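I would like you to help me understand the sequence and structure tokens below and explain how sequence relates to structure.
___
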Amino acid sequence: MRQEERKQSLEGTALKVYAYLLRNGPAGPREVARALNLSSPSLAYYHLRRLEESRLVSKLPDGRYRVAGPASIEGYVVIGKWLVPRLLAYSAFFAGFLAMEVLTAVLRLKNGEAISADLITLILVTGLATVLFALEGILMRGKKA
């Protein structure tokens, strides 16, 4: 039986707590509070309970909490143990295309060929998309931190 992904909207401290557990594995409220510079373990406990109620984390018998399984956090993608703003992933995708387009232009120049207006336009549009997605992704990541 396939476990359904849960689409959740997280922000602020709850998002930071979830990202910490995703990166570092099981942790208790004290450890989370210390690592994230929260004012008290009770604040960490509050957010851990909220995440548990959303079924994003589960409580272990020893009192620590761990990420419960596959979940989809709105606006983010999980890459390995990292929660990355989806827009940064899009930016990386466009950056790959931009690199190939620039390489094509350089090789054409090196071979004495002219660069077409279409290729220049493509490089400009792809470069703009890369920069815009990167900036928006950085701003989104800033909201998390």
